[in-house]
Design brief:
Blueprint: H1 20-82, H2 88-117, H3 123-142
Helix pairs in contact: 1-2, 1-3
Protein name: Superfamily III holin-X
Region (Disordered): 1-22, 122-143
Keywords: Membrane, Transmembrane, Transmembrane helix
Length: 143
């Protein structure tokens, strides 16, 4: 074994010169790190979507409260003001329609936010994992 030289501990051994067990161990470590990174990305994406859904829910709740209080506070005042030029029943109807339109717009905006956040699937992370898996498969076939 005079011609064989053992590598030092701090030297990087080329992949082709490594033993099968060393290769498997290194690939296993890399796959583990990749899986952990992808899980962290997926959790981050899920948190973002949950936050968006929460904001959408808050907007819907706000729309409901707004509709209730605005209706109670302004229906009477607007109805009284309109009753000077219209019959009282028509003044109240016009006021109610206007408030309903505002509540519908706020409710639609909140529901749209919820729709964009659901289903809570980490789509970007899944796409990254799929493309990473395809790249790993190509790399394994090339070796």
């Amino acid at each position: 074994m005079a011609g064989t030289q053992l590598p030092r501990d701090d030297e990087e051994i080329p992949m082709a010169d490594r033993q099968g067990g060393d290769r498997v161990s290194e690939v296993s470590e890399q796959v583990g790190a990749l899986v952990r990174d992808e899980l962290h990305d997926a959790l981050r994406e899920l948190r973002t979507k949950a936050t968006q859904a929460g904001l959408g829910g808050a907007l819907v709740a706000f729309a409901c409260v707004l509709a209730l209080y605005a209706g109670a506070a302004f229906v009477h005042g607007l109805s009284l003001a309109l009753s000077r030029v219209l019959p009282s029943w028509l003044a109240a109807t016009v006021t109610g329609i206007a408030l309903s339109a505002v509540a519908a717009l706020a409710g639609y905006a909140g529901a749209d936010r919820i729709r964009r956040a659901v289903p809570p699937v980490p789509e970007q992370a899944l796409s990254d994992v799929q493309s990473g898996g395809e790249a790993a498969g190509r790399a394994a076939r090339e070796q």
